[in-house]
Amino acid sequence: MRDLxxxxxxxxxxxxxxxxxxxxxxxxxIALTGHTTTVDVTTGEIVHAYASTEEPTGxxxxxxxxxxxxxxPACSRIYAADTYHLFxxxxxxxxTVPDSVRAHPRVFATLTAPSFGPxxxxxxxxxxxxxxxxxxxWHKAAxxxxxxxxxxxxxxxxxxxxxxxxAGQLWARFTTQLRRELAAHGDLxxxxxxGELRLSFAKAAEYQARGAVHFHAVIRLDGPEGPTxxxxxxxxxxxxxxxxxxxxxxxxxxxDSTATGTLQLRFGAQTxxxxxxxxxxxxxxxAVAGYIAKYATxxxxxxxxxxxxxxCTACHGRGTHETPDGRLNDCRNCDGTGQAQPPASLPVxxxxxxxxRTCWDLAQIPEFAHLNLRRFAHTLGYRGHFxxxxxxxxxxxxxxRNDRRTWQTEQARIRVGRPAPDPVATETLASWRYDGTGYxxxxxxxxxxxxxxxxxxxxxRHEAKKPARGTTACAW
Length: 476
Ligand SMILES: [Zn+2]
Ligand SMILES: [Zn+2]
Ligand SMILES: [Zn+2]
Description:
Layout: H1 2-8, H2 13-22, E1 30-40, E2 46-51, E3 60-62, H3 73-92, E4 106-111, H4 157-185, E5 198-207, E6 213-222, H5 237-250, E7 253-257, E8 261-265, E9 272-275, H6 285-296, E10 320-322, E11 328-330, H7 350-362, E12 387-389, H8 397-416, E13 426-437, H9 443-465
Antiparallel strand pairs: 1-2, 1-3, 1-13, 4-6, 4-9, 5-6, 5-12, 7-8, 10-11
Helix pairs in contact: 2-9, 3-6, 4-5, 4-7
The protein binds zinc ion (3 copies).
């Protein structure tokens, strides 16, 4: 508070406040120092110049852009909104996609991991009634026991971690196999498929309570030119559904090592495939885009694990440093463990801790060294992205961000009354350097005030939409 008062006493307080406001409440902004100069190429005249020294703190602050709600709630909301628009455009059209895609076969498919041993669960009957777990209790929805093994000693932790570590690769094989299955349905040699049909998809990875990664994907069939052309009549929703089920059941990936033997990694037996409908139902295009955007902002935190890497950064998790004459010395930072923190002290449940330990142990097996399991112990071995899409599905996150940046730059130009630059006759020279993360003393309370303001505004908007208690819908 003293820092804030100190800041408030300065002449440029309003500008500091405006700078923090533009970050939208970001938790850990990125600071840059440097300058940008726009020059008229013909006359050599400086059209516009900006340097971070013009800022009250001498630094330009940018939002961190983190996708995880646990890291930065403000930036993760923007990421979720962008992801939503990206998924939605591929379903209903918009951005670069024509709205005729609504007539193409589109499904929402869920591919899960196989069983690694029975876990505590809370299944519901067809009527939505909670059923009893195999341990004879009715678990509550928030019970931390959910997803934990009934018999921890017999649970296949090696299989669970190796599945996560290969899940991205298994998905890639699945898409190749899916093209093969579709070609077989159309009675075509595989090389002729692109001349008739294109496969587009967007997927999000999510963790189940047991810590296994699973994929939710929107899969769409287009004609040979992509979303602008219809697929051939034989390529129906039923064909796509059959092909997905067959491909998911068929793909396998061997994971070999002398220590663990050969393991065939596969997807689980239950592949859920639903047609996406244009109406307002549970599987309407809008609802599906919403689910996927929500999954994409969650990391493994949902399963009670951690949102930051667990290896010692001084030795990159190796536990040793090599001396110039080739000897190995224990890393002093981690006492040779390679861990930033001993697993026993991590604030996670026992099941998650065991998955993290398994990542650590498997990393020592030479055949699994390429899996980088120490680097990815906090994601329980999963090394892929949380939201991905094929090239022709819709626009990209980068394109959406560029659009927003162009719009913001244009608004700023209008605000200060600067003339529009002529892109042909000007050249922009820029030099920027990273200068740390986070706020300076005094700025954080300002950011917190902005977060509060936004949260209240969201709450009010939400309240306004909700019908008051006890009222019934008006018949008129
Ligand atoms: Zn942020
Ligand atoms: Zn149970
Ligand atoms: Zn170390």
